[in-house]
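Incident review: delayed structure delivery

Summary: a single-chain prediction request sat in the queue longer than the usual turnaround. Root cause was a stuck worker, restarted by the on-call engineer. No data loss occurred. The affected request and its eventual output are reproduced below so the record is complete for anyone auditing the incident later.

Affected input:
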Amino acid sequence: MSTRPLRVGLAGAGHFGRYHAKKLAASPRAELTGVHDRDPDHAARVAAETGAPSLGLAELLAVCDALIVAVPAAAHHAIAAAALQAGRHVFVEKPIAATLAEADALAALAAERALVLQVGHLERFSAGHGAIRERVGTPLYIEASRMGPFKPRGTDVSVVLDLMIHDLDLILELVGSPIAAVEAVGAPIASPLCDIVNARLRFASGAVATVTASRVAPQVERRMRLFGAQGCVSVDFVARTLTTTTRGRGDPVAGLPGFGVETAAWVEHDALEAEQAAFIAAVLDGAPVAVDAAAGRRALAAALLVEAAVNEAGERMRASGLLHDLDHRLGGGL
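Output delivered after worker restart:
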């Protein structure tokens, strides 16, 4: 285990990049060596808050061992590739890239140079995810919903790549089977791209997941229900509660002989701090990469399948005239 701090640079000083910078500045195992952003004012603000210099990208790569990439998704590949080519380890926020070809190129670069490439799927590091993993085997059916009020940031991508990808990543990890088919519908409401999407995924194993994401909901909602041979687990990520209905355990369930119900709660820890610590450990200690390029690619591939299914459904609706009627009802938002 290395005792020296890891010199880490930050590319992208926007909303989430600022959080990364503050965590790095406080980390006992990392040194924030500089901040880069295409908007000099953003970089200067975060630099002033953390005491790190504001640098150009080439200057930043010259003074760091690793780079955190928190720029808009369309620029993930260009920035991450530049860092990998310079021999720097990379942590790239989700999605890993804008296309599968770009994701594959990043994975190949990291492998060729024996560098760490970790993808920022933050939910993997939440206490809620840990609570689910303790109680769930391989689910047969999953329902997931992730909703919240509209915010202009993040609208450079659809709600699928903005929000739904979190649940897609968790579902892929839990099911452990390739996607066999996808059906989906969605609509742009407050931005040019889809702001609400509902998808149904069928896996090669026979498992099914129904996933809904919205960034135009009146309030925050994050729920997941998982059904398997032994019962059901219902999770409320906002209330931080988990209810398990299983055979032979817990309080008896009326009308369901042999089943019992148990309710648990968890205390959330700092998932971003845990995520950064995992990246630092992978670089300094040789620990396994918690969310590697392959996992990031799987999540991106699933998200792109959902987006393609939304587009196909839209074309069918246009052909039938239904989309015109829906557009009229929404006041021309489609």
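Verification: The longest strand covers residues 179-187.
Action items: add queue-age alerting; document worker restart procedure.
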